[in-house]
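User
New here, explain this?
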Amino acid sequence: MGREFFARDAVELAPLLLGAVLSHETTAGRVAIRLSEVEAYRGVGEDPGSHAFRGRTPRTSVMFGEAAHLYAYFTYGMHTCINIVAGAEGGAAAVLLRGGVVVEGADLARERRGAASDRDLARGPARLASALGVPLAATGADLLAPPFGLRVPSMPLAYEAGPRTGISGAGGGAAFPWRFWIPGDPGVSTYRRHARSHD
């Protein structure tokens, strides 16, 4: 798919990414993951769960840029999570990659993930980034150019939708059913409602 495919509303794009294969090549080798679960985030003033809700910051500036670039952020002081920038430039939308299944480079993914079971190699956003070997410093990278590759299914897959995981306040409630997943897929993570999310 060309870049224009990704330059659409994040809520529209997110389910279309289910079944997509994201690959990352490093000196250690190549790992590819088929996406099983994603979450959509809109921009300034629209989405209280979004990092960009209150405007541009040095961390979120990538979200305001060109579609199909990588937005990476650090969480809990120890984990990198990765997103695909969506929408038109200036819109600050992105799709969080929440879970998937390793389809290439499983041995390398296992090295990076230590004692994780094969099912858990990329099941969860931090695990997915770790299995791919994507560091925080990769934020801003073009996912349509080496060392990355991104192939989207020619036809949308069947999916389910519900509230996003671990988001506090209104952004984690039923008004934002912007988590999308492939039913029964082993790469789908466990849903965890934030204690302070709003219904």
Q: What stands out?
A: Strands lie at 21-26, 29-41, 70-75, 79-86, 93-104, 148-151, 160-162, 179-181. Residues 113 and 131 are 6 Å apart (CA to CA). The chain has a mean pLDDT of 92. The helical segments are 3-6, 10-16, 106-113, 125-132.
